[in-house]
Specification:
Length: about 150
């Protein structure tokens, strides 16, 4: 590959290493295919899941089994793995993983790992549907009628 205006060989950029969590979840194979088939940015895709038998493990450059996103050591496990795999971008794909990573995002960012998560207050608001609807109402945004249910009775 050469520069069009000169005779200097162009080098290919190093791939960006991205880690996707919950690769055993819904639409994972489709997401992984889209990432690996795009040609604009060279990627090295690392996949993690708590189920080592997930078929999506075949569609990543490296796969690792990790604890469930709801466990207390989840973020620490991912942080160690991100360092070992030289991850540059971390994309969580399940609600509990988003919250765990949002809580620990400074540890990741401090190591140069960009996290695709909002602030933890936003994550918690989005996960609590009644609180989200109240927030939208208070902001003057129309919402459909709803009732908050606290028991099955």
């Amino acid at each position: 590959m050469h520069c069009a205006d000169c005779d200097v060989p162009m080098t290919k950029p190093d791939p960006v290493t991205i880690l996707l969590t919950c690769v055993g979840g819904a639409l994972s194979v489709e997401v992984l295919r889209a990432l690996t088939e795009q040609a604009e940015l060279p990627l090295r895709v690392i996949g993690v899941d708590c189920d080592e038998r997930t078929p999506a493990a075949r569609f990543v450059d490296a796969f690792h089994r990790v604890p469930a996103g709801s466990t207390s050591d989840y973020a620490a496990c991912l942080l160690e793995l991100c360092g070992r795999e030289r991850v540059q971008v971390l994309v969580p794909r399940a609600d509990e993983e988003v919250e765990a990573i949002a809580l620990a995002h400074q540890s990741f960012e401090g190591r140069g790992i960009r996290c695709a998560v909002p602030e933890v207050q936003t994550v918690r608001l989005l996960r609590h549907k009644a609180a989200l609807l109240r927030f939208l109402e208070q902001a003057g945004i129309p919402v459909a009628a709803y009732r908050e249910v606290g028991t099955l009775q």
